[in-house]
Fold:
Amino acid sequence: MPNINRPRISKNTNYATQIDKVDDLRGLVVEDGTIVECLQVYYVSINGDWFPFAPLNNETLEIGWARYDDTMFNAGIPFIFTDNNPFNLPNNAGLTIDDYNLSMYSATDQMFTLELGCTYALTIAFKAYLNTNNGHIELSFNAPDDYDYSNIADVIIFPKGNGIEHIFSRSFNFYCNEGAQSGGINLIMNASHAGAIYDIKYFIEKLSHA
Structure:
């Protein structure tokens, strides 16, 4: 079979795209694929909706973190609990840092207020003591509209008792389904013996937006 020499074709094409700046996306009627800049974020129009694609910062992606500190109970005035009596972990969010305006916790309801399909990381930090040796506290999630969240849990061991303060932190990764969105999530504790808890802090990060 004879050799066939095919010419190599090289072609460089430059395209110029006009990007308009707007102050508000609402009410714009454009063709699919239109790109605009609004408040320093670039959006592309697809099937009548606007989708941000640059810059990819936390505000654009609707992710970020927040911190909620209880200011009611401290070492001088702790929250007192009794043995084998489940209680809702108290946090009045008296100190709140929520620079991304995600509003992931309601101090009024003592519930985490989450968005459907999103994923989260939560760290719970606190100080506590028991009035006996070798006791423990059971910590679990509670979603009134989805019992399965109670499987997100941990057992916290107190190696020292008789009023000796312990500093604890526990971290959990989880997602928000329809039950967690509709009814929220709160944190339940159940202690083997009487004691006290205080200096309660929540650090929560929204990892992804559905």
